[in-house]
Amino acid sequence: MKTDLQRTVLASVEDAVASERDGAHAMERVVAILKNEMPSYTWVGIYLLEGNELVLGPFLGKPSPHTRIPLARGICGAAATEKQTIVVDDVNTDPRYLACSLETRSEIVVPIMTGSRVLGEIDIDSDRPAAFGADDKTLLETVASLLAAKLEPERTQ
Ligand code: SME
After folding, report:
1. What angle is formed at CA 143 by the lines to CA 35 and CA 139, rounded to 5 degrees?
2. Best of 46, 97, 105, 107 to mutate for ligand 1, by most ligand atoms within 8 A of CB?
């Protein structure tokens, strides 16, 4: 079940991913749509997997000190290693958490996958505690699958 807002956002994302000429532009558009349309999404970024590191691509929000995250570190590393979405309602109680901003209270990390291969992930922080519910998870997993289809042909090395 999606809210009207999520339906609108998903339609914008589908349009952006279909119309942009490559994965890099599609990622930038998706980050902007999510940041601008979803009020509780304070920081929105996409990391791409390069070897054993997640490398920060497009993002909106305060600059993060974590531009390269080894797979063994952070909530980001855990989501890529476990190949599943991780939702953290209170980042201050999660020992894996790597802080980006002192205001951040909750986080969701959604792997971008093609089959069982992780290409990257969508990382979103909120200044609100427990900002991410089942609707956000469903929306963002759909967005991740659209991005995976766009990125996969460019990352088949
Ligand atoms: N909080 C993430 C690090 C990335 S910043 O939030 C942008 C983590 O724990 O992996």
Report:
1. 80
2. 107
